[in-house]
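Following up on my earlier thread - several people asked me to post the actual chain instead of describing it. Fair enough. Here it is, all 276 residues.
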Amino acid sequence: MQNRIWFITGISGGLGKALAEAVMANGNFAVGTFRSRQQAANFTEQNEGKGLGLVMDVTQQEQVRAAFETVQTNFGRLDVLVNNAGFGFAGAVEEASDEEVRAVMEANFFGALEVTRQALPLFRQQKSGHILQISSHGGIKAFPGFGIYNAAKFALEGFSEALAGEVAPLGIRLTIVEPGPFRTGFAAGSFQEAAAKIDDYQATAGLFRERMSAVNGKQEGDPEKAAAAIYYITTVANPPLRLPLGKVPLTTIQAKLDSVQKDLNDWRALAEGTVF
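Reply from S.P.:
Thanks for posting it. Predicted structure:
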C-alpha cells in the first residue's frame, strides 16, 4: 500500500497535519492544502519527494479546480481523497446570523462537496479510489448550541451516504469519519461563535459555549492515533461506511440510535395508520 497519492485538505494543523505525516511515514505521497502560501511552500520544501503543498481555500471554486488540475498534471492519478478542512461554530440556532450560517455551510459542506466532485472524474477513470469525509459525531447526533455546525455535518453525511452507493459499483470506496473531541485546534484557533447572545439560551447554547472553551487542550482524543486509525482503514479490503473515533462518539451515537429506535417503537401504530 505504498506509493499512493493522497489529497488532504486543511493540513496546517490538527488531524490534517497528523494524517499527512502518517501518510508520508508509510511511504505514500501527500498533496496537502493550505490557505497560506508560505505554509504551502514550507511544506513542499521540508518534504521533498514525499509531499506537495498547495494553496487552496475550499470555498473558492477556482482554487479547487486548479488544485485538481495540478494533481492530474503532476501525477495522473489519485488514490485517496480526505476532506478535512472546515471549522467549528457554536451558538443557538436563533443567535446565528445569515452570514455566519452561510460561512459554516460554505466551509464544512459546500467546500467538501466541490472537492469531492472534482476528484470523482479521476476516480471514475481509474475505477478505484477511497474518499474519506471527516465529519464528526456531531454529524449524526445534534447538540444544543451546535445546531448550525450539526446541520453542515448532517448535510455532508447525507450526500456522502448516497454517493457511497453510487460509486461502489465503480470500484470507489467511501468512509465517513466521525471523531469525538480531539486535542487539535478545533476548540480554539479557527473555532467561531455566534456574535449575538440571547439570555434565554444561556442554560443550553450558553453552557455549550462555555464547555467548548473549558475542554480545549483536555480532550480525550490523540490526533496521531486517529491518523493511524484512518490510515489503517484505507489498507483493508472492506472499509466501513462510518468510522467513529474515540470513546465519546461511541456513547453519543449509541444514544442517537436508541432515541430513534424508541420513537419507532412508540409511534409505529400511528405511522402505519397513515397508508391507504
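The first strand starts at residue 5 and ends at 8. That should answer part of your original question.
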